[in-house]
Design goal:
Elements: H1 2-10, H2 14-19, H3 23-37, H4 44-61, H5 70-89, H6 99-102, H7 104-124, H8 127-152, H9 161-183, H10 191-221
């Protein structure tokens, strides 16, 4: 966050280039030692998801200098979200009965949010969005499924699952802010605010997802 703010106020990208690529590797190292300390196997797919997230971070660093690179960053994060979906749905601690069956209103809320966001972007009629509408909608659907997959396996009695759900939700909000900042006038004169929100939510989201998965695994193995 501090690196982003300094970059925005000074116009120097050096600090951002030095710090942002270290976010995911730092999280990977932490996850490795946390798993080792608690005698659990670290899910390889989780690490691969963080690697693709790192690629996405690096790609989007160049967005202020090369707008066309947005699509590449989108692809990297799309792969990361698909991996997260697979991780959640194949988790050993998952609930066999979807949480949505008990809370159908929650499912309607998730679907309604993404539908409202896409409808709002269409209403803005931003030329960049019109040009990229198909990949953006595909990405929105995938990240929606990522959130829904985290919610669907939720169980109150397993410590850590709320971390995953909360992390997935923050990821959706972070990516929503990216879309609003790029394809609407909402942050037209407040790009520094948008970037601060994006990085804050994103950093916390990734940490919560990883910690939640590890805590849930530990809790499940101790049952």
């Amino acid at each position: 966050m501090i690196g982003e703010l300094i970059f925005l106020n000074s116009g120097s990208a050096n600090l951002m280039f030095a710090i942002k690529p270290l976010l995911m590797p730092t999280l990977m190292v932490w996850a490795f030692y946390y798993a080792k300390e608690n005698s659990i196997n670290l899910n390889k797919s989780l690490i691969i998801a963080l690697v693709f997230s790192m690629f996405g971070d690096v790609a989007l660093m160049f967005l202020p200098f090369e707008p066309k690179i947005f699509m590449l960053g989108l692809v990297f994060f799309l792969v990361a979200h698909i991996l997260y979906i697979s991780i959640f749905l194949k988790a050993p601690f998952k609930n066999n009965t979807s949480y949505f069956k008990k809370n159908p209103l929650l499912l309607i809320t998730c679907l309604g949010y993404v539908f409202t966001l896409i409808a709002y972007l269409y209403k803005q009629n931003h030329p960049e969005f019109i040009k990229m509408q198909i990949p953006v909608i595909i990405y929105a659907v995938v990240i929606l499924f990522m959130l829904m997959s985290a919610i669907s396996i939720y169980q109150k009695h397993i410590k850590g699952m709320m971390y995953m759900v909360f992390g997935a939700l923050l990821f959706v909000l972070s990516d929503s802010t990216i879309a609003l900042g790029k394809f609407s006038v909402l942050f037209a004169d407040k790009q520094d605010v948008a970037r601060t929100i994006i990085m804050s939510l994103y950093g916390i989201a990734q940490f919560m997802i990883v910690k939640g998965y590890l805590l849930s695994t530990i809790s499940y193995q101790k049952k």
